[in-house]
Write a structure and sequence with these properties.
Helix content: 55-70%
Distance between the termini: 15 Å
Strand order of the largest sheet: 1-2
Number of domains: 2
Structural class: mainly alpha
Radius of gyration: 19 Å
Length: 241
């Protein structure tokens, strides 16, 4: 998806990911390529980094080697276009099938400040895709992270989730969505799912309005996460690879 992110947002995303190995390539691209080409390279690196670093959590040795080699090629003029640069990065680009498999298993501890920020970024990017490109800034919009299976396993949830399942599925991406603060704190909170889903139906977030099942179980979380993984393949995609 070619979304509305500007260069500043893209750089902020790399900072959020904690990715720095790409900086030599970005500096060489900024100096040697026309500005429109640099922006395309920057976007490609953000999407590549999300797949490789954030979701795949793969070893960075290979990534460092590739970035340094390509940076030299850009700087000496061997690579002159975005497509040429992207082609040289293909070895560290997680293909859709592999990316989807990693995504389907990812969980983030939302009690950790850094991981919570990453979750907000992910949910807002997915929401934009599901809402036909209507963009909300994850840093300024007031939405909160809603745990569909709540952090408190009360009597409303004990029949469908054992204590072990609660620990396993609570922070899975398939169990997380966006919700307006007032709805999260007052209308949804840790209520039974049948009550929550009625609140979701009136949310402004497309990613939340799509939750329309009548029950919420471990299988439902896995199913939703598989669906989000398919959507993610279109959000964090690098063309020409």
């Amino acid at each position: 998806m070619e979304n509305g992110q500007g260069a500043e947002e893209l750089v902020n995303a790399l900072t959020l990911f904690g990715v720095t190995l790409c900086y030599p390539l970005l500096m060489a691209s900024f100096e040697k390529l026309p500005l429109p080409e640099f922006r395309k390279v920057l976007r490609a690196i953000v999407h590549l980094s999300f797949r490789y670093n954030v979701i795949g959590k793969l070893q960075t040795n290979r990534m460092e080697e590739v970035y340094n080699r390509v940076a030299i090629q850009v700087f000496n003029g061997s690579l002159r276009t975005t497509n040429e640069v992207i082609l040289e990065l293909k070895d560290i680009y997680l293909a859709d099938d592999e990316f989807r498999k990693y995504f389907e298993l990812r969980a983030f501890n939302t009690n950790n400040n850094q991981e919570r920020k990453v979750v907000r970024y992910i949910l807002y990017e997915l929401n934009e895709q599901l809402h036909d490109g209507a963009r909300l800034d994850f840093e300024t919009d007031g939405g909160t992270i809603e745990h569909i299976l709540p952090e408190s396993r009360n009597e409303n949830w004990q029949a469908d989730f054992t204590e072990e399942q609660h620990l396993k599925y609570l922070y899975m991406l398939g169990n997380l969505t966006l919700l307006e603060p007032t709805k999260n704190n007052k209308e949804a909170a840790d209520k039974a799912f049948i009550e929550k889903v009625q609140v979701y139906a009136n949310s402004k977030y497309a990613i939340t309005k799509q939750i329309q099942s009548t029950t919420w179980t471990p299988k439902m979380i896995e199913h939703r996460q598989m669906g989000l993984a398919k959507t993610a393949c279109g959000v964090w995609k690098v063309e020409k690879i």
